[in-house]
Amino acid sequence: MNPACDKRQSFPRRKNRFPVWKATFSGFLVLSALIFSSTLAWAVDGICKPGIVRHDGSFIPVSMRGGWARVRKAREVRLKFLGHSSFLIEAPGGGRAVMDPYVIPVLDPPPDAVTVSNFHETHSMTGPYLGKSEIFFGVTKEGKPNAIDEKFGNLRVASFPQVDGDENHPFVLNTIHVFQAGGICVAHFGNARFGPSPGQIRALGKIHVLLLPIDGSFTVPHDVAAKITKRIGPNIVIPMHYFGSELTGEFEKALKAEGITRVVRPKETELVLTRKRLPPPTTYVVLPDVNVP
Fold it and tell me: What is the pTM of this model?
């Protein structure tokens, strides 16, 4: 073939100015940045890592299956007081759980999950939900912790058993359950006998709504409960495990001693929450008494 008639052109090869190792390293940096940014976003939404909190102030982490869901837009989370220490939480788009079931009308439809912080009768009336809901006990019959990390629709549930002893011979005194939905973390402190240490609070992650027992006798005293609230710094703290307005008033005084002075008393037993409409830390929200036998 006459070279003059060949329309194909050959171009001199350019040297690779971006070696393979640099491309690989750059890709690694980009991937690391994405992972870090995702982790940071999860931390903002509240990563609640399940583990075991011990009376001596130490924390034993438990690995999770997968990450917590990221939430990109505000959605409503419903939290309803059912009496004593019992609440119903409903996640936007699906997922319902009852915490520490007590003497309440049977929910219809039944919740996806029921959590029990301890075996006291006022915290563990699971009968109406047997065979209908997933029931999670924070402690075994032998007194050992049950590590819980479950997801129901858009609701995530994790457990933090509070124990005496060590990891080889733990005895569960109470279980804190943490619920995440719509970018909001709700911590239910069950029948807490002692408060988390600063290290344990860091392990809990960001808590937006704290459900705290305040009888001041069978659970932590009011001054200790107020200090727990101050350390955790939730947007909202809701009292539970009490009878009568006298105890809520005493807890209010203890909170004021810690500099927490905002108090709200809604007329309804249900709160509708979104991340964008959460008050700044910390507001004491006293829900109406629920008449129970």
Answer: 0.77
**How many C-beta neighbours within 10 Å does residue 135 have?**
17
Task: Please give the full DSSP string across 46-74, using - where no structure is assigned.
Answer: -----EEEETTS-EEE---SS-PPP--S-
pLDDT of 167: 67
Residue 42 has pLDDT above 70, yes or no: no
Helix axes 222-232, 245-257, angle to 10 degrees: 60
In this structure, the number of other CB atoms found within 10 A of the CB of residue 132 comes to 15
| 1-21 pLDDT per residue, tens | 444 444 333 334 444 554 555
Judged by DSSP in three states, 255 sits in helix
DSSP 15: P
Domains of the chain by start residue, with CATH: 46-285 (3.60.15.10)
pLDDT per residue over 214-230, tens digit each?
Answer: 987 778 899 999 999 99
What is the layout of strands, in order, in the sheet containing 86-90?
Answer: 134-137, 113-116, 96-99, 86-90, 77-83, 270-273
Residue 240 pairs in a beta bridge with 213
Percent of all residues in the chain with a pLDDT value above 90, rounded to a whole number = 41
What's the DSSP call for residue 154? T
Query: What is the per-residue pLDDT across 194-253, written as a single tens digit (0 to 9) for each?
Result: 777 777 777 788 899 999 999 877 788 999 999 999 999 999 999 998 888 899 999 999
Burial classification of residue 171, based on how many CB atoms lie within 10 Å of its CB (0-12 exposed, 13-18 middle, 19 or more buried): middle
Determine the Cα–Cα distance for residues 209 and 281; give it in Å rounded to an integer: 10
DSSP state at residue 111: P
d(CA 124, CA 135): 10
117 close to 175: Cβ distance less than 8 angstroms:
yes
Tokens of 71: 């939430």
